[in-house]
Specification:
Two copies of one chain form a homodimer. By secondary structure, chain A is α/β, with parallel strands linked by helices. In chain A, the strands form three sheets. In chain A, strands 1, 2, 3, 4, 5, 6, 13, 14 and 15 form a nine-stranded mixed beta sheet that branches. A four-stranded antiparallel beta sheet of chain A has the order 9-11-7-12, with helices on one face. The longest helix of chain A is centred in the last third of the chain and has 22 residues. Chains A and B meet through β8, α9, β9, β10 and β11 of A and β8, α9, β9, β10 and β11 of B.
Chain lengths: ~425, ~425
């Protein structure tokens, strides 16, 4: 790929050195010895990463705003109040012992891309036709606090601020207290963009299998997420007769098995999972009285998702019967499948093609902050390959040349929006 | 029962008021608003409870020794170095959000029973023929640190001190550090008894169903306990194709279901359980890479236990295949079934009958510190009813009249040993 990048007609507009340096610097905050990343949202490490980003924004003349849920906005208000605003970025938080590219790449590539556009505006003497905002969303991952996409969901009105601030982690600490602890409990009115462009690593292996280096996500899968508690009766695992046991963990175990079997009935169009299970009191010689399962059903097809949701209810009933327990749904989040903005996809495709890289059109199954954003303004997610499709794991890796390619295409897209204004379809 | 207790020929030898007051005082340390008890071993609450017991022992002229694993011994060395020693007590630690009778009753009734015996020795002017030790064993419950019966197992040589001190809780704190933190890292040589008598609540409903108020445990079930880790591959729950997932929690779920089905193949003679499950990273949108199950198989019949153990291995293989994961055994503890001392059982039966209460002979399925003790000296566990058989639950309750009856029979048994010496069969 270096050939195209170094071609005189398509010189890299970003500085590869600066982008790699930014990423290396950010890895200091939560990077693990095995090359992974442990930067839970609103942790001390996240606070340090945010401080680093904030310092960068100030140094580069962006005005920094923090809203009520701690989303960080670095604003370049150079085109005047009547010009549209283009937002770009992603999230700095990671999964527990996750990877260092997921999220951070999108934020730092946005920093470098905006810098590159500013340099080009100066060099070519054009009048910018849009303002820019670099964003770092709070709690994209949903690992420490649920649900995921917390910051962008509050921003887009999918969730109330009060609800989000009251969410608690496994130790009972609220989002509000965690924001306060790291100094990111803001109250600034957030900027409102007319377009949103997010760069991310693929978290899948489709690009790699196709031997391609760049893609745009044209559609996101729908998802139904449940937090479901099985309620049994805490008792001694020794003397309590088997026939009298009401084992909450047994109920959850039946459901875990049934949900896997359910996915196998709709191969390729239904993903199911139980990623988190909280067992109480979780003592080796106590029959569990409560087991809380965090469940996901995902599909690109609304009909399949509705069918799976109905089957899920039947699986829960069967698990209750098998373990002589009851259950209650404590939280449900339904996110319909939907498209991203066709005009922004087309623009990215032109820019990639100009560099000699055909763009692949992809679905995303993972949630991205662009999913709630798409409800508010034309949005798109651009992706580069993740080696082996590995994501949410310390071995997550994207090759430097792909990191640079993605950052460069992002900068070219932003440059086009800056020079030409927003495309008609997305005005 | 008050009739027999108040009968002039069988006056209560203990002070009911003093025993109830001791139990009420001890409930301050970890008692929960719903009448339960949360006093994890070596916690701050356990430290306070130990301090309270230690102060009581000092006030009552017992010399206090703390051994290397933090077991507390209150010694009444009044019969001389050639006389045998009778040990009595239980444990002050509780399950997480457990009950207030399990364990604490045995320690405090021992305190009061020894006090009552001393008063009677003074009144009747007899020469005591044995010394007494009141004991509080460290970590009977096995909730915070595994395995259970930690203090008594070190004491009896079933486990090395170094191994026990190195055990860590869910937060990585070692037993050694926890002992240090509450000031119970001792190094005194422990006293060695020639008989061990433990009073406990039943943790079962057999006495209640038979409308009886007192029992002795004549046999303990055997147990095999495993800590088994399923090892999969951490991945994103969204995009990772179902066919590629190696879900450690799915493996554990298959095993939980299979172990329950296994118990149903040997009704009444096999108890199986998974009480604790540790899922890593335990994030809602990450396929679990590791799931550690804490498994118990219990039976009174060695052949059934051996059969269950072989079937367990087959269940693990099947779970591995179903979830495409591997597994490894991280800990195993095998405790054979065995009898308690017949002469001590007979002595308790005589004393109960003298009060008008027929004694019921019971098995215990729960572990008790008397199980390892039985390997070292004649031992017995005496029990009074637990309402509804409830144990390891805040609703655990023993009626005051049964509390007093049990304490009184314990005092009468100790009195007989004191006056008459140890029975021939247990010398």
């Amino acid at each position: 790929m270096a050939n195209a990048m170094l071609d005189s007609t398509a010189t890299t507009v970003i500085s590869a050195q600066r982008l790699i340096a930014l990423m290396t610097a950010m890895e200091r905050y939560g990077g693990t010895p095995n090359g992974g990343m442990h930067r839970l949202t609103l942790s001390a490490e996240d606070g340090q990463a945010r401080d680093h980003l904030s310092a960068w924004m100030h140094e580069h003349g962006l005005s920094v705003r923090i809203d009520g849920i701690g989303n960080m906005f670095g604003i370049l208000d150079w085109a005047g109040p009547d010009a549209p605003t283009v937002m770009t970025g992603s999230h700095l938080d990671s999964q527990p012992r996750g990877g260092r590219f997921d999220g951070a790449y999108g934020v730092l590539a946005a920093c470098e891309a905006v810098t590159a556009v500013r340099a080009r505006v100066a060099t070519e003497g054009v009048v910018p036709r849009c303002n820019f905002v670099v964003v770092n969303w709070t709690n994209e991952e949903g690992a420490r606090f649920q649900p995921s996409l917390l910051g962008s969901s509050v921003y887009t009105g999918q969730m109330t601020l009060a609800d989000a601030l009251g969410r608690r982690d496994g130790e009972g600490i609220s989002v509000a207290d965690a924001l306060q602890a790291i100094g990111y409990a803001g109250n600034a009115p957030p900027p409102i963009p007319q377009a949103y462009v997010e760069l991310h690593v693929e978290c899948g292996a489709e690009l790699e299998r196709a031997d391609q280096h760049f893609g745009a996500i044209v559609r996101h899968w729908g998802a139904v997420k449940y937090r479901l508690a099985f309620l049994g009766r805490q008792a001694h695992t020794g003397p309590t007769p088997m026939a009298q046991r009401q084992d909450a963990l047994l109920g959850a175990a039946h459901l875990v098995c049934a949900l896997r079997a359910l996915a196998d009935r709709a191969p390729g169009t239904l993903h199911t999972s139980v990623g988190r299970l909280e067992v109480r009191p979780n003592s080796p010689n106590v029959v569990p009285g409560e087991a809380v399962a965090f469940i996901e059903l995902r599909s690109p097809d609304a009909a399949v998702l509705a069918w799976a949701d109905a089957e899920f209810a039947a699986c829960v009933r069967a698990a209750e019967t098998a373990a002589k327990v009851t259950s209650e749904i404590r939280f449900v989040d339904r996110r319909p499948a939907g498209p991203f903005d066709a005009a922004l996809v087309a623009l990215a495709e032109q820019e990639a093609a100009g560099l000699g890289y055909p763009m692949r059109r992809l679905d995303t199954i993972a949630g991205h902050d662009a999913v709630p954003m798409a409800l508010r303004c034309p949005s798109v997610v651009l992706v580069v390959p993740s080696v082996g499709g590995i994501c949410h794991h310390p071995a997550e890796f994207t090759k430097p040349e792909d990191i640079i390619l993605g950052g460069d295409i992002l900068a070219r897209v932003l440059w086009r929006l800056c020079r030409d204004g927003l495309p008609g379809g997305t005005a």
